[in-house]
Amino acid sequence: MHNPLPHKIRNQQFWLTTDRTMFWEEEKTLIVSDLHFGKTGHFRKSGIAIPAAVYKEDLQRLVSQIQYFQPANLIIVGDMFHSHANKELEFFLKWRADLSDLSIRLVKGNHDILKTDWYTTAGIDLSTQTHTVDRFHFIHDITDHLNNKEGFAVTSSEENYFFSGHLHPGVRINGTGKQSLCFPCFYFGKDYAVLPAFSRFTGVAMVYPEAEEQVFAIVNQALIQLQ
């Protein structure tokens, strides 16, 4: 794995990786979003030929991140799973048994539709709207907060900071001539961050940072700060 990139938020140390994860040093917590485990199996069940190796590669990347950072906690800001249970999720349960000491907290996303007892069996703690650690808040879709749909109190930026997913953020980078390519990215606004989708079997939605906002594009095996 390439060296993580340090990034400070509210005087806390975070580390960004090209494997689309973020490690919170003070809390010994690995933060990810939109793993969509089981998605490839869901597509194959629908008759779309997606190699099983795609899911195994994503799971192995997560294992590598856990081995590297040795976190005490794993926070997933939504869409850990893609749909109903299938054989890929049975494989996940075997993987989970080998990491039983790791605390896993899932903030449920729109794709997390498994029955509650399945999460209990998997040793996953659930939050249905938001999860809070100190003054940091974890939510699946930041637009729910911005539009105040979930009833969160709107407070000053000095008090709260949000981490979210759902949007699968990406940026367009122009090359020589008229060439341009899209890449997944980490987006950091004044009051909230949007993490890239951990799964590589996803698309991206373009973000257009404004002044004082920061974007780190994941280009091959490098993190490039654009703003």
What does this 3D model show about the protein?
The chain is of the alpha/beta class. The chain contains 5 helices and 16 strands. Strands 8, 9, 10, 11, 12, 13, 14, 15 and 16 form a 9-stranded mixed sheet that branches. A hairpin with a 3-residue loop joins β12 and β13. The chain is globular, with a radius of gyration of 17 Å. The two termini are 24 Å apart. The relative contact order is 0.17.
Computed structural class: alpha/beta
- Helix and strand pattern: EEEEHHEHEHEEEHEEEEEEE
Shape: globular
What is the tally of beta strands? 16
Oligomer state of the chains in this structure: single chain
Mean pLDDT: 84
> What does the largest sheet look like?
9 strands, mixed
Individual helix count: 5
Helix content: 10-25%
Distance between the termini: 24 Å
State Rg: 17 Å
Uncertain stretches of 5 or more adjacent residues: 41-51, 150-156
Instruction: Indicate the proportion of strand residues.
Output: 25-35%
Topology:
Blueprint: E1 5-9, E2 12-16, E3 22-24, E4 29-32, H1 39-45, H2 53-69, E5 73-76, H3 87-97, E6 103-107, H4 116-121, E7 124-127, E8 130-133, E9 136-139, H5 142-146, E10 161-164, E11 169-174, E12 180-188, E13 192-194, E14 205-206, E15 214-219, E16 222-225
Parallel strand pairs: 4-5, 5-6, 6-7, 9-10, 10-13, 11-14
Antiparallel strand pairs: 1-2, 2-3, 3-4, 8-9, 11-12, 12-13, 12-15, 15-16
Quick description:
This protein has 227 residues and is α/β, with parallel strands linked by helices. It is 20% helix and 32% strand.
